Amino acid sequence: MFASTKLAFYYAIFALIATAANIGAQDFVIRNYSGAFDILASVVVGTGVGLVVKYVLDKRYIFRFRARNVAHDTHTFVLYSIMGLATTVIFWGFEFGFNHIFETKGMRYLGGVIGLTIGYLTKYHLDKRYVFRSEPV
Length: 137
What we know:
This protein is mostly helical and 137 residues long. Helix content is 84%, strand content 0%. The N and C termini lie far apart (32 Å).
C-alpha cells in the first residue's frame, strides 16, 4: 500500500472514531439532560469530546508529533483547536441546519456526520500546514 494511501486510510478511520465519540457524547447528553439548551449542550460536549479524541490520534499516528514538554503540547493543542474553529462552523452549520430543516434527531446527527466529514478533510490540510509542521512557526 502506498504511504499516502495508508495515511488517508488511517486518517479516515480516526475521523470515524472521533465522529462516533462526538455523536455518542451528544446522544449521552440528550438522554441525560432535557433542559432549555439540550441540543446546544449536546453539540458543545460532543465537539469537545471529538476534539480531544481526534487530537490524540492525529498527533500520535498521523503526524507522529512528539511535544518537547507540557507547554509545547499545550501550545500545539491550542493551535490545533484554533484551526478547528473554521471546521467547527462547517460542522455546526450542517448539524443545526439539518435539525432546523428536518426536526428529527436522526437527521440532525446525519447533518453532524456530513459536517464532520467536510470539516475533517479541511482540517487535515490546516493541521499539516500550520499545526504539526516540522519547522518553527
